DNA sequence: ATGTTC
């Protein structure tokens, strides 16, 4: 495949054939080599054929092959002749990350790691089919789909400060009636549940501060204990995606036929089906925010139980699987766009309306988890992200090996023992998950962060080190 | 990612 280097960390596949625009890869040599190991480049090239695409299709430094779009894919389309593609959002609608800052220091939890792992594991429903922390009936679920975090606030599961520190204040305007009934059936018992796979709950310690000013704005300092939550819309989002994919395929046979790959299926934004999916997707996003809020409440209860009266305030909550309506400058003109981010995190710099008031100077916190054996980072949205990536950066380390390969290469007990040697305590519902998520299955997060920072799309603020990791 | 191959 033809690939030209434009400048450091920026590669481009020129526009040829069916492509509407060029395709871009943001990576350094090491990550690019890994990206070349699967179909990611072909997929980012396929993305460039989307109708209404603006500027270029993009894959982030943590990119790897996915369903239709690669994970790490960003595609912005205009409202006039653009499309919406479920493969550009992902099965786990509003899969995302939130970080809580506590008033605890590492000194205070040292020696109690195992206890902490146990209590979190017992309090937060982990794995598949374990129920939710918050019980809701059908009417309440409909309200959650409509109001997201606002419902949590009204029902004493959230504070006003929580809402202020959440992307979109935890609510996107939508029509919850567009969520399939089978999706609701799955979601009703999953409000406040972690799930499985790469989802986790991690107690971390702030190890390095790179930008004192921004760290202070985010309320972070060295040795402070943070809690990172990575989860999404569970079975509800999955079912929603599945059913709309089926509808899209049924309704657009002529589109399917002309696609470079069937999984790239989309609907023209002007069509009712596109709007129905958008409404359902936004409702699932609201559900995911309520879900992460439910987990937050379980974490707060766990910390209070073990350490007495503690504070655990939301720093930020940001999704990395969603399409958003945003205004961006293209060729000197402000345009209304739909920005697909699939395994890519919004990273808005100061001055943008999306940035919460508390962070208007520092820019939006960007939360990037590493693997369970490596660092995670908090970045700030960089000015260059508007020019290079429609206000986006990577979403984490990114997989290096498939789940199947990982299960062949690792034994759960060995992984767990090695991590414990590094003072990282892992508690999981299933050994298979530990194997799938072994640190060796992931790319080097430090390299991903380096590319983001050097490009100026997301800039380093703090680095965290894992202490306790709880997963499905 | 997922009541993990409705």
From TrEMBL:
Q: What top-level branch of life does the organism fall under?
A: Archaea
Catalytic reaction equation(s)? a 3'-end 3'-phospho-ribonucleotide-RNA + a 5'-end dephospho-ribonucleoside-RNA + GTP = a ribonucleotidyl-ribonucleotide-RNA + GMP + diphosphate; a 3'-end 2',3'-cyclophospho-ribonucleotide-RNA + a 5'-end dephospho-ribonucleoside-RNA + GTP + H2O = a ribonucleotidyl-ribonucleotide-RNA + GMP + diphosphate + H(+)
Q: Which residues bind Mn(2+) 2?
A: 230, 320
Residues reported to bind GMP = 198-202, 320-321, 369-372, 376, 395-398, 471
The record places the active site at 395 (gmp-histidine intermediate)
Binding-site positions, Mn(2+) 1 = 92, 199
Which biological process annotations from GO are given for this protein?
tRNA splicing, via endonucleolytic cleavage and ligation
Task: State the free-text cofactor note.
Answer: Binds 2 manganese ions per subunit.
- Under what name is this protein listed? tRNA-splicing ligase RtcB
Tell me what gene encodes this: rtcB
């Amino acid at each position: 495949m033809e690939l030209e280097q434009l400048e450091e960390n920026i590669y481009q596949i020129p526009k040829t054939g069916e492509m509407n625009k060029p395709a871009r890869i943001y990576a350094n040599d090491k990550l690019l080599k890994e990206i070349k190991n699967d179909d990611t480049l072909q997929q980012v090239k396929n993305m460039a054929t989307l109708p209404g695409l603006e500027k270029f299709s993009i894959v982030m430094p943590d990119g790897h092959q996915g369903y239709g779009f690669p994970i790490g894919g960003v595609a912005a389309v205009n409202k006039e002749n653009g499309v919406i593609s479920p493969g550009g959002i992902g099965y786990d609608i509003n899969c995302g990350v939130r970080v809580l800052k506590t008033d605890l220091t590492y000194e205070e939890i040292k020696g109690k790691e195992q206890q902490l792992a146990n209590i979190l594991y017992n309090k937060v429903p982990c794995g598949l089919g374990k129920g939710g922390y918050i019980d809701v009936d059908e009417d309440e679920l409909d309200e959650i789909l409509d109001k997201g975090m606002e419902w949590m606030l009204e029902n004493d599961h959230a504070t006003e400060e929580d809402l202020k520190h959440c992307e979109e204040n935890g609510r996107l305007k939508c029509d919850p009636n567009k969520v399939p009934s089978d999706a609701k059936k799955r979601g009703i018992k999953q409000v406040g549940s972690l799930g499985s796979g790469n989802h986790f709950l991690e107690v971390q310690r702030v190890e390095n501060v790179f930008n004192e000013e921004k760290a202070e704005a985010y309320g972070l300092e060295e040795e402070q204990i943070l809690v990172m939550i990575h989860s999404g819309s569970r079975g509800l989002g999955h079912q929603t995606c599945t059913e709309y994919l089926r509808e899209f395929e049924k309704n657009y046979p002529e589109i399917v036929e002309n696609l470079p790959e069937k999984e790239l299926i989309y609907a023209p934004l002007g069509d009712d089906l596109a709007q129905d999916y958008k409404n359902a997707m936004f409702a699932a996003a609201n559900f995911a925010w309520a879900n992460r809020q439910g987990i937050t409440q379980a974490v707060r209860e766990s910390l209070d139980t073990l350490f007495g009266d503690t504070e655990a305030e939301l720093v930020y909550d940001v999704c990395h699987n969603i399409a958003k309506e945003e205004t961006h400058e293209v060729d000197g003109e402000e345009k209304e766009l739909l920005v697909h981010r699939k395994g890519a995190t919004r990273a808005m710099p100061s001055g943008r309306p999306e940035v919460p008031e508390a962070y208007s100077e520092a820019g939006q916190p960007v939360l990037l988890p590493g693997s369970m054996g490596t660092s995670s980072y908090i970045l700030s949205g960089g000015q260059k992200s508007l020019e290079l990536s429609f206000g986006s950066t990577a979403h984490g380390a990114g997989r290096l090996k498939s789940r199947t390969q990982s299960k062949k290469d690792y034994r759960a007990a060995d992984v767990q023992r090695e991590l414990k040697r590094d003072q990282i305590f892992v508690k999981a519902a299933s050994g298979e998950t530990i194997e799938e998520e072994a640190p060796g299955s992931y790319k080097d997060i430090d390299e991903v962060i380096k590319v983001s920072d050097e490009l100026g799309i997301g800039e380093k603020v703090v680095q965290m080190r894992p202490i306790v990791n709880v997963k499905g």
